[in-house]
Design brief:
Layout: E1 5-8, H1 14-25, E2 29-34, H2 41-50, E3 57-60, H3 66-80, E4 85-88, H4 103-131, E5 134-139, H5 142-146, H6 152-172, E6 177-184, H7 190-193, H8 197-206, H9 215-225, E7 237-240
Parallel strand pairs: 1-2, 1-4, 2-3, 4-5, 5-6, 6-7
Helix pairs in contact: 1-9, 3-4, 4-6
Length: about 250
């Protein structure tokens, strides 16, 4: 198998960690992009190495800022080589009913969850096209597909991820570059598992499979979309939500 270089944004969160691990298991060289204000790269890389995932390259940058992404990708390429696989996973929430939603909360979510796709994809897509091979994988959400009260900002951004994916896929298909999205439902990350037990149970009860997704199930889907076997799939959205919503 050809080893590819995979750059994952939001790499040090629960879902990002699982994505990095599954891409690592698939034989790829991993570049973990993290936010310098919120993440702890030394602690994370130590934990990853202890779990058998050694040699991951870490690069810092705010994906909501274009110039920061220019520098982030340049550093990634200097340390690991050309980026073959990009997973746009970074995301935040600022949940509030629309009547009380502040412009700053709208802007923060749109810039981190949607504008970041432009900022990051712009750095690698033309280079992938020039080499005739590439994978761009964008993480959306079930709430970008069905909507959710209290998440007009988040749902708008995640719906935009799907539209962005379809349009860029149409542009890059002839160049050998695929662009796909994954729309996870509720995933059993540390953050979700810390929700109050009664609220967590109500979430689980709403899912037809009566459980949360395991992070590695989303990571495994990323590994498939990054593989040679997924070379004929582009512009698609994989809905992985336990039957919570059918598109």
């Amino acid at each position: 198998m050809t080893q590819r270089v995979a750059l994952v944004t939001g790499a040090m969160g629960g879902l990002g960690t699982a994505i990095c691990q599954e891409l690592y298991r698939a034989g790829h060289k991993i570049v973990a992009a993290y936010h310098p204000e919120f993440d702890r790269p030394d602690e994370w890389t130590k934990e990853m190495a202890g779990a058998g995932f050694a040699g991951i390259v870490c690069v810092a940058g705010d994906v909501s800022v274009f110039d920061a992404c220019v520098a982030l990708v340049a550093e990634a390429e200097a340390q690991a080589g050309a980026i073959d696989i990009l997973v746009n996973n970074a995301g935040i929430t600022r949940d509030r009913l629309f009547a009380k939603l502040e412009p700053s909360q709208w802007d923060a979510v749109i810039s981190t969850n949607l504008t970041s796709l432009f900022n990051m994809s712009k750095q690698v897509s033309n280079k992938m096209a020039g080499r005739g091979w590439g994978r761009i994988i964008n993480i959306s959400s079930v709430n970008g597909v069905k909507g959710q009260a209290g998440q007009t900002n988040y749902a708008a951004a995640k719906a935009g991820v799907i539209g962005f994916t379809k349009a860029l896929a149409a542009e890059l298909a002839v160049k050998g570059v695929t662009v796909n999205a994954i729309a996870p439902g509720y995933v059993a990350t540390k953050m979700v598992m810390s929700i109050k037990p009664d609220v967590l149970q109500s979430i689980i009860d709403s899912v037809p499979m009566k459980r949360l997704a395991r992070p590695e199930e989303i990571g495994g889907a990323c590994a498939y979309l990054a593989s040679e076997l997924a070379g004929f799939m582009t512009g698609a959205t994989l809905n992985i939500n336990g039957g919570l919503y059918y598109q």
